[in-house]
Amino acid sequence: MEVEGEVLQFEDYFPSMMEGLGSEGFMEELCQGFHLLMDVEKGLITFESLRRSTWQLGLQEMGDDELVWMLSEGDLDGDGALNQTEFCILMLRLSPGLMEGPKQYWMEEMHT
């Protein structure tokens, strides 16, 4: 992670993870990430569970506005939280390497 001014920039490891783990292993890793961030009682990633997780991940400098943006960016059903499917879709959308990189590889990999 790099901090440039006020903007956090993250290195995109997803393409190399997809290549190394294969599509099934990669999706399992995303699901594990979801479980680390979710509110156990609700089975969803909520603002509160995300705020708690920022401390565990060393990202406590993220402001509430950024967390709200992350939730709203992925919240497809409008409930204010992320279910596992919404989380996985958001993670894939936010990975420029997967979206711009070797699409053919991972698209074929997902269908095998």
Automatic annotation (TrEMBL):
Keywords, comma-separated and alphabetical: Calcium
All residue ranges annotated as the EF-hand domain in the record: 62-97
Keyword Transport: no
SUPFAM superfamilies recorded: EF-hand (SSF47473)
InterPro entries assigned: EF-hand-dom_pair (IPR011992), EF_Hand_1_Ca_BS (IPR018247), EF_hand_dom (IPR002048), KIC/PBP1/KRP1 (IPR044205)
One GO MF term attached to the UniProt entry: calcium ion binding
Protein name in UniProt: EF-hand domain-containing protein
Organism: Vitis rotundifolia (Muscadine grape)
Lineage: Eukaryota, Viridiplantae, Streptophyta, Embryophyta, Tracheophyta
